[in-house]
Amino acid sequence: MPAPAARFIVGNWKMNGLSAEISEAAALADSLKDEPSPHRVGLCPPATLVERMARKLAGTAVEVGGQDCHGSASGAFTGDVSAEMLKEAGASLVILGHSERRAYHNETDAEVAAKVEAALRAGLEPIICVGETLDERKAGKTLAIVRGQIAGSLPTSLSGKAFALAYEPVWAIGTGLTPTLEEIEEVHREIRAAMKAQLGASGATAPILYGGSVKPSNAADILALAEVGGALVGGASLKADDFLPIVRAG
Ligand code: PEP
Fold this sequence. Notes:
Layout: E1 8-12, H1 22-34, E2 40-44, H2 47-57, E3 62-66, H3 83-89, E4 93-96, H4 99-104, H5 109-122, E5 125-130, H6 134-138, H7 142-153, E6 164-167, H8 181-199, H9 201-205, E7 208-211, H10 219-223, E8 230-233, H11 240-249
Helix pairs in contact: 1-2, 1-11, 5-7, 7-8
């Protein structure tokens, strides 16, 4: 029997974590050293911890990423962090277009696309998020919304580059709610078709992660679905004891 495809399991710490929590990342890496996983594993801490986490995890199987970057390499953008800065700090990944950035910072698809370009220029692997709100789902607009976000947020320069897409229904993030397995599969199939049409071979192979209330108890069922190539995990990625069972479920 062929080995199951490797999954990409990424933790998004959001605005959580002080120096002391680096120990959780170290505990995760230690466990994976004793129990090597076929899956790619990443952690995206707040920008203040990227450098220290990257140093701590150097030489381990756990990759480190940022949660956002600016579209420019440098300039008068108070409070922002560029892709080059994340790269220099030791990141290899960056989450872009997360629904919390789209909602609280009014990020548009065009801005997300510019950030993706910036990430690629700096040599970071972008994880681009899309997903519908509850009102959009109730109105039957899920597939159209996701298709529109893909068309607007994924520049053609992604062709031939390593990247991942994360489908994160906004109403499932941090709520304990998840779509049914059939609903997840339906959206992932649509995303695959849209990415293939837009980006060719890269769109056909880039992993599509599911995100939104992934927990140890539902991870195995979600990760077994067609076209689910991994998970983007918020709350359950903060503690190694919660995140490890999700990595194992892959
Ligand atoms: C997220 O913020 O990307 C996320 C999926 O959060 P949670 O797992 O907490 O729903």
